[in-house]
Amino acid sequence: MTEVHYGVVRVGDYWSIVGDHLRFGHYPTQRQASDAASRLAEQSTGVGLPVSLHVQNEDFVLPRPTLLS
Hints:
By secondary structure, this protein is α+β, with helices and mostly antiparallel strands. The chain has one helix and five strands; from the N terminus they run E-E-E-H-E-E.
């Protein structure tokens, strides 16, 4: 089954959402980027695709993703 992966990462002094062949957004905080990524993920989960959401911590560590269904 297809699985969608999105990530929230720090790019210099802002946060962006990344995915397969995409990078968008210019959010001042991690929280704002994470909220936007969750809304984006709802589009995929709404049609039955599982989404893994990877969110980089403020200290640049990338913990295990959260599976959204």
